[in-house]
């Protein structure tokens, strides 16, 4: 600093005693500041210790681990009153390969859902058998060897139009035609794949209009999609039970011929749609399976989950027992193996889950499918849903007294995921729990991702949202589904959940009882055959073996159950 002469004079002219006094005052001031600083540091230390003790005693319930690709949720630490076992998950113990069900050969970034779904869904309901895991790895090798445009594929393709199998190729195929709504397609894909496993065939999938926009490739290093240049592909939409190569039609025209002596075309069409006739249903007879083995190309159209009737074919019995010791795990395992949403759909799923469902102590899914005509919501449907969820203690009772402001609070919260084509049921349920407190003090919140008003099978975005909602339902702890709905079947199977099924109302009246617990998580085969192939007469196929029974929601349908249940 620069000082003027007057400044220097003033400095030198000061009284020394005055300077000493000022120095003492400054020392005293510094001492006070030092004491205050030490006190502030001490308070900060106490605050940190207190905060750490609180966190350790009561960790946050929605802890997350950050990853490079996706957010991985940790199951809530609050106690969950689940009727289906412990749902708490340790992030470090997430089994990305699903106990060996999935191959480790896939590139992860191309399909985020494949290896990250285990962090959102419940763990597998059972351990897959070692034989099933071995069979899947063997199938993947077969698919790679016989896949599209391989030498074996090209050789087998040359046989189209001929009779029987004359090629040296050891590859045979079952082609699945994309048909019907999304729920039906997922169930029939699993059915066709199981049939391919049982008959050592390669499954090729008709991509239709949107299959590639919905599902990742399930097999490593090779596609499951049928190429656009496949001969006859342009005729798939016209295939029916009157087509010349239809198996039922061939049998009808050769009723007087012994099947064991017949020679089939190289391509046989299997019509397994709900309107199939008795000749088409011969597909489920052992003798006819031997005959079908001739043809290298089987083209299948179906809207049925026909797996239960495969369990009634004697030649498949041992293989199926080894693959699935627990009979009610077929779709659960095959669905988790085959069905992986593409990244865009996976984004719909994870964003919604993180925003609305992740922090709840318990997640409840309610799937409402209404078959009545007219404009909803219908009061009898709402009454049925409430009656079911309250009687089964899935939702807490509410306090309807108008003078009640609030009851004792509870740490537990329930997030209720509603899926329906209309928003009316969601709005009414939400308002009931908004306007009235619960008697338990639990917090209940309701969410509905979309309400498309009516089914739009032909629209890709509609199907993407539908797939996302099926998947979100599968992440819940408990689920309520509607009778006859394949949408609900897919959700319960992927989630490994035994649902409460809302019985189908009659005459717009809520049924009593409103719902019942399913025997198993398996879907229902809606249009099974009732025919004894050996006796060549009608028979109740729901009473032949203990593990194939009639469905709860459709008396004539068939479903797989575990014998112990």
From TrEMBL:
Compartments (UniProt record): Golgi apparatus, Golgi stack membrane
Biological processes annotated in GO: cell wall biogenesis; cell wall organization; xyloglucan biosynthetic process
Single GO molecular function: galactoside 2-alpha-L-fucosyltransferase activity
GO-annotated cellular components: Golgi cisterna membrane
Enzyme class: transferase
This protein's record includes keyword Oxidoreductase: no
EC number, UniProt record: 2.4.1.-
Sequence intervals crossing the membrane: 35-56
Topology of the protein relative to the lipid bilayer: Single-pass type II membrane protein
Keyword tags: Cell wall biogenesis/degradation, Glycoprotein, Glycosyltransferase, Golgi apparatus, Membrane, Transferase, Transmembrane, Transmembrane helix
A Pfam family annotated for this UniProt entry: XG_FTase
Coiled-coil region list: none
InterPro entries the record matches: XG_FTase (IPR004938)
Reported function: May be involved in cell wall biosynthesis.
Family: Belongs to the glycosyltransferase 37 family.
Name recorded for this polypeptide: Fucosyltransferase
């Amino acid at each position: 600093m620069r000082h003027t002469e007057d400044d220097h004079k003033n400095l030198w002219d000061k009284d020394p005693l005055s300077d000493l006094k000022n120095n003492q005052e400054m020392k005293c001031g510094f001492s006070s500041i030092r004491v205050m600083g030490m006190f502030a540091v001490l308070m900060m230390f106490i605050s940190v210790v207190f905060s750490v003790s609180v966190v350790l005693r009561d960790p946050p319930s929605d802890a997350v681990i950050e990853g490079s690709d996706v957010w991985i949720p940790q199951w809530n630490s609050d106690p969950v009153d689940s009727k289906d076992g412990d749902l708490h998950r340790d992030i470090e113990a997430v089994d990305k390969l699903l106990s060996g069900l999935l191959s480790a050969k896939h590139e992860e970034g191309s399909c985020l859902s494949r290896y990250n779904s285990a962090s959102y869904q419940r763990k597998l309901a059972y351990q897959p058998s070692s034989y099933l895991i071995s069979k899947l790895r063997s199938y993947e090798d077969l698919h790679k060897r016989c896949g599209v445009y391989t030498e074996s594929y090209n050789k087998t393709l040359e046989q189209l139009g001929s009779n029987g199998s004359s090629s040296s190729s050891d590859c045979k195929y079952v082609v699945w035609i994309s048909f019907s709504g999304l729920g039906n397609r997922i169930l029939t894909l699993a059915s066709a794949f199981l049939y391919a496993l049982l008959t050592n065939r390669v499954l090729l999938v008709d991509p239709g209009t949107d299959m590639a926009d919905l599902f990742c490739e399930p097999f490593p290093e090779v596609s499951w999609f049928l190429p656009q240049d496949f001969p006859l592909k342009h005729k798939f939409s016209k295939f029916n039970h009157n087509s010349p190569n239809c198996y039922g039609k061939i049998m009808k025209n050769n009723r007087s011929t012994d099947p064991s002596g017949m020679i089939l075309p190289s391509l046989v069409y299997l019509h397994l749609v709900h309107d199939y006739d008795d000749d088409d249903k011969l597909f489920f007879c052992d003798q006819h399976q031997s005959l079908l083995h001739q043809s290298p190309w089987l083209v299948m159209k179906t809207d049925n989950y026909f797996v239960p009737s495969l369990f009634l074919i004697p030649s498949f019995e041992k293989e199926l027992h080894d693959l699935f010791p627990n009979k009610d795990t077929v779709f659960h395992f095959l669905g988790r193996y085959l069905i992986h949403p593409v990244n865009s759909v996976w984004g719909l799923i994870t964003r919604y889950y993180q925003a609305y469902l992740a922090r709840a102590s318990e997640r409840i899914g309610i799937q409402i499918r209404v078959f009545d005509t007219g404009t909803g919501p219908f009061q009898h449907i709402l009454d049925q849903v409430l009656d079911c969820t309250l009687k089964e203690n899935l939702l807490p009772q509410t306090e309807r007294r108008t003078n009640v402001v609030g009851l004792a609070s509870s740490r537990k919260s329930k997030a209720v995921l509603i899926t329906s084509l209309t928003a009316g049921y969601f709005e009414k349920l939400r308002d009931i729990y908004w306007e009235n407190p619960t008697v338990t003090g639990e917090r209940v919140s309701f969410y509905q991702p979309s309400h498309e008003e009516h089914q739009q099978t032909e629209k890709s975005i509609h199907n993407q949202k539908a797939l996302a909602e099926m998947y979100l339902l599968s992440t819940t702890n408990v689920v309520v589904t509607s009778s006859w709905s394949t949408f609900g079947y897919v959700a319960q199977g992927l989630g490994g959940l035994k649902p409460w099924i809302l019985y189908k109302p009659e005459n717009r009246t809520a049924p009593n009882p409103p719902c019942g617990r399913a025997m198993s998580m398996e879907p229902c085969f809606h249009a099974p055959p009732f025919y004894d192939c050996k006796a060549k007469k009608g028979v109740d196929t729901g009473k032949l073996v203990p593990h194939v029974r009639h469905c709860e929601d459709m008396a004539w349908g068939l479903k797989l159950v575990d014998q112990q249940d």
